Amino acid sequence: MAQQEDLLKKIIAHAKEYGFVFPSSDIYDGLSAVYDYGPNGVELKKNIRNYWWKAMVQMHENIVGLDAAIFMHPTIWKASGHVDAFSDPLIDNKDSKKRYRADVLVEDYLAKIEAKINKEVTKARKRFGESFDEKQFQETNPRVVANRQKMEEIKARLYPAMDRSDMAAIKQLIEDLGIADPVSGSKNWTDVRQFNLMFSTQMGSTADGASEIYLRPETAQGIFVNYLNVQKTSRMKIPFGIAQTGKAFRNEIVARQFIFRMREFEQMEMQFFVRPGTEMEWYKSWKEKRMNWHLSTGIPAEKFRFHDHDKLAHYANAATDIEFEFPMGFKELEGIHSRTNFDLSAHEKYSGKKLRYFDSEINESYVPYVIETSIGLDRMFLAILSNAYTEENLEGGTQRIVMKLPPFLAPYKIAVFPLTKKDGLPEKAREVMDNLKSDFMCFYEEKDTIGKRYRRHDAIGTPYCITVDHQTLEDNTVTLRERDSMKQERIPMNEISGIVAKSLTQNNQGL
Ligand code: ATP
Questions:
Q1: Any atom of ligand 1 within 6 Å of the Cβ of 88
Q2: Of 114, 351, 412, 468, which has the highest C-beta tally within 10 A?
Q3: Which CATH superfamily is domain 1-86+210-400 in?
């Protein structure tokens, strides 16, 4: 675990040093859980976003896009349930003055018991070797059985208390378990209270009677309230989807783990409208499609898993998370939810406008059911970054850090170097660059040795480096160096474009 946390620290430092991600307001010592994307980060982020858009919109005739405003009518958040229920239980430690999510304190406690169980199992496996029967051990070892039972008892208190929003019961549970502040060890807790995660602000001048509005905590509601506008203007027939990417804001209580949990982040969401009764088959199909999309980025399958929810939100009849193995363990990357007709029905009720669809195939009018796929762009960015980050030991005892990004996501596709700054090589290299830059993101560099320039581009994941030397002046050939294999080959200048273009479409079969 320590090693993994170490990896996260290294990624954060690398992301800053190489212009991927900076803490927001850095010269003012940052703003908690807010980050800025630097020159390389913005390219990588845009490429991930475009790749999602391509898979969802370009590859599906029945999915269209939308860009709804961040500000929306405040009643929308009443209808969606966010005003009343989009909150987390918060608790403060009176001695350390640290603030925690009360449910997370209990869940961390559960994770510790689970870790104890796993330790027992590992120990027993070592002791019994080949003949070890894990199932039997789990069912009969007294310490494991007692710990499992303890976990079940805690869950049986936590989850119903969360469902009832019974803050006193959660506080009691924390006290009964003797949970201490992880920082100070103090058990001197305040009461637990609900904390709404929506940011609010005022719209209009006070003289006009300003009204309180919210920064959207998800992009989905912009899709729901535009459902009829989009369906009619793009002549969509059910089943069809609406896709949107954009900023969302949540005043997260505990914001840590870099861009995994931010207060301002970006979502990529798609709501798929279907005939009631067909939702389970669409839910299954979207689960599969979304997993295939993740795999098409080249990340190995063992880094992903589904986590089906046993405990469903009141509006959902099926839900799963696609979890990714981040440096801090398996965590939610994307949610796929069968949301029934909850949102559209609520908007019908609150707006007084009909949000029905007339299905001519069955001659019936209904409020469509919805399957939602919702992924955090920043979390996907972290997944891609942590999978790509590689420390490699080279011959001669040196080390290189290489970002093994799939070429289609890399910020720059090609770096162009003149071998030296003289003899007309920069001019020739500029000519190469000019031929390529309208088709590919290219970077021109002449400072430092070629070796150093290679290292800098390894560190940002540029898949190809081109070196122009004296021979280029004679026969128009250049050296093409491939990032991962570090192989160099001499090729005619006019072949660069084809080689690079080919590498950018390698993932397309996964779409
Ligand atoms: P979590 O349980 O981690 O708080 P969630 O279940 O509240 O997430 P959803 O409301 O389902 O998340 O949001 C959909 C997606 O948006 C998530 O899968 C995640 O990728 C992303 N997301 C949610 N909250 C944040 C955040 N604070 N920072 C970055 N991404 C986020």
A1: no
A2: 468
A3: Bira Bifunctional Protein; Domain 2 (3.30.930.10)
Coil, strand or helix at 160: helix
Query: Residue 130: what residue type?
Result: E
Whether 333 lines ligand 1, by a CB cut-off of 6 Å, is yes
Looking at ligand 1, which residue's alpha carbon is closest to its atom 26?
A: 261
252 lines ligand 1 (CB under 6 A): yes
Cα dist from 257 to 187, 236, 260, 377, whole Å: 25, 41, 6, 15
The Cα 129–Cα 115 span in angstroms is 21
**Pocket flag, ligand 1, residue 377 (CB < 6 Å):** no
| Domain coordinates in residue numbering, the chain | 1-86+210-400, 91-195, 412-503
Distance of CA 236 to the CA centre of its chain: 29
What's this model's pTM, rounded to 2 decimal places? 0.90
Instruction: Say how many Å lie between the CA of residue 218 and the centre of ligand 1.
Output: 9
Q: What is the pLDDT of residues 361-387, one digit of tens each?
A: 999 999 999 999 999 999 999 999 999
Q: Cis link prior to 300 (omega < 30° from 0)?
A: no
Instruction: Indicate the class that CATH gives domain 412-503.
Output: alpha beta
379 lines ligand 1 (CB under 6 A): yes
334 pocket-lining for ligand 1 (C-beta < 6 Å): yes
Give yes or no for residue 375 CB within 6 A of ligand 1: yes
Ligand 1 centre to CA of 368 (Å) is 25
Of 258, 324, 374, 377, the residue with max ligand 1 atoms within 8 A of its CB, to mutate for a pocket test, comes to 374
Q: Tell me the pLDDT tens digit for each residue of 219-273.
A: 999 999 999 999 999 999 999 999 999 999 999 987 778 999 999 999 999 999 9
pLDDT band at 10 (very low <50, low <70, confident <90, very high): very high
The two domains 1-86+210-400 and 412-503 share their CATH topology (first three levels equal): no
Distance CA 336, CA 293 (A): 13
For residue 404, the Cα-to-chain-centroid distance in whole angstroms is: 18
Rounded distance between C-alpha atoms, residue 86 and residue 357, angstroms: 29
Q: Which of ligand 1's atoms lies nearest the C-alpha of 376?
A: 20
pLDDT in tens, 131-140: 889 889 999 9
Q: Which residue CA neighbors atom 25 of ligand 1 most closely?
A: 261
What sign results for the dihedral spanned by CA atoms 241, 337, 45, 55? Answer: negative
Which one of 21, 197, 263, 265 would you pick to mutate in the ligand 1 pocket, going by the greatest count of ligand atoms within 8 A of its CB? 265
